[in-house]
Structure formats: structure tokens, C-alpha cells
Design brief:
49% of the residues lie in helices and 5% in strands. The termini are far apart. It has two domains: 30 residues; 104 residues, Cytochrome c-like domain (Cytochrome Bc1 Complex, Chain D, domain 2, Orthogonal Bundle), CATH 1.10.760.10. The protein has a two-stranded antiparallel ribbon with strand order 1-2. The chain has 142 residues and is mainly alpha-helical.
Amino acid sequence: MKQSARHLASFAASFILCCGAIEAFAHGDVVPQPVVTTGLKTLGTTWQTSNPYRQNKTALRIGDSAFNQNCARCHGLGAVSGGIAPDLRYLPLGDEGDEIFLQRIRKGSVRDGRVYMPPFEGTLSQEAMWSIRSWLESVHQE
């Protein structure tokens, strides 16, 4: 029994160390993933002030995937934040939420020289950003 208990304790310690190492690597520098926006109307270089893809089924599908690839590591799967970053399900709907979303995703967030969120302008296309916003509205909570 003592040998079995030692084996179990050794396994538990190894498991905790292993999981801790995985978790430590999960929050390092992350390269944004490209978003394929095939099937969406091209928006050009002038930034829209209101979401042109609101409730567009193609945008919802693209936005879901784009969010999971580029945003979920901080904002949580399904946009349910685990506390690292804001829970985006509570962004206001409509133009008010569009303005908040677009400002933050384009410019990022830096306070006291610390990057809390990187800017995605120049990395993600306008089409990709608006598709993410469309998907976020589909999981909105009051």
C-alpha cells in the first residue's frame, strides 16, 4: 500500500508540473492567425462605423472561427471570460457596441507602458474584425 501511495503521489506531482508547464506556455507571445473572409462583401480601405455584416450567416461562421483563433486565449472560449480580459458578451448591441469594439480591436490597449491587448489593425482585415463583431453579437448577454 505504501508503494502504491508513493506512486500515486509521484504521478500527481508530475501531472501538476506538466500542467503548470503547459499553462505557462499558453500565455506567451502569440502570433495572430490569418482569417479567410471568402464569401463576404469586400469593404475597401475606408473604415465602416457600423457593422455591415450584422446577422450575416457567412460572417457569423467566419467570426466564430476567427474569435477562437485570435481572441479566445484571453477573452475565453465562447467569449466567456475567465478573468484575464473583459467578457465580450456584454458589449452593447448595435452602433454603440460597434464603436467600442472597433476602437479596441484596431488600436489595442496600453496602460502605463503595458500592452493589455495588441492592436489588430494591419494584422486582421476590416472584414475579419467585423465578422468577429457579428459573432459576438450572436452570443450577447444582458
